[in-house]
Amino acid sequence: MAKQTSYFPELKRNWWLKHPYFKKYMAREATVLPLVFFLVCLLVGLFSLLQGAESWQGWLRFMQNPLVIAVNALAFIASLFHAWTFFQLFPRVMPLRVGGRALPPNLMVLGQWFGVVVVMILAAWIFMRGL
Amino acid sequence: MNKGTSLNNDTSENMKRSDEPIWWGLFSAGGVCFAVFVPAAILFIALLIPAGIIAPEALSFDRARSMLFSLPGLIFIGVVICLPLFHAAHRIRHGLHDLKLGKEHLNKRVTYGGAALLSALALVGFAVGIL
After folding, report:
1. Residue range(s) defining the domain that contains residue A31
2. Nearest Cβ partner for B39 among A16, A49, A76
């Protein structure tokens, strides 16, 4: 194979700091970091539930730690930010047509937010019934 | 497949089928779950109940056990823990690439391997719980 003679500019590690669009892209990538924290919390909760009532109480107290609540609050905001970016992709990846007319993208995004609200109401019913 | 029409016969026969569609599919499915189901899970389990806005009895030991170790509990583990784990793994893998950290084949093993390991732990915990 011939030796590469073309010029390839080297990409620096901080390339994404140079444009607001790339910063937003990296922020979206970073939404999974607090998510992983929350998921690990859930896994620890699952195993403390297996170890008995005392261990479960310990997990509930751990979840009340202000620092844990703060990171989980960040995870909540991150999940909504992710949802906001993710819902905009759906009309582009899979445009829907109803009765020969293209469904307006805004309506599809709105429909997905409606889904989030329905899940929240369902969760409220699951956690608060009988209290 | 149609060997005769292939432009580069020598490589097409040896070409391995890419595993990317699997990771991409898990990433997309996890992205939907992260956007639709995870916000409600964080809001109730990690914010409203620990902050005392909803009575802690909502997650009492007996209640938590009967909720988690059931068919809805298994669905919860799938859509709130396992699929978002693979979504996170995909974003972390590509985030590391963007930051020029680590080696691609190793990053891939560590991120997806980690997601698979934690998912397996969750499912084992569930199996122990229902037995």
Report:
1. 16-128
2. A76
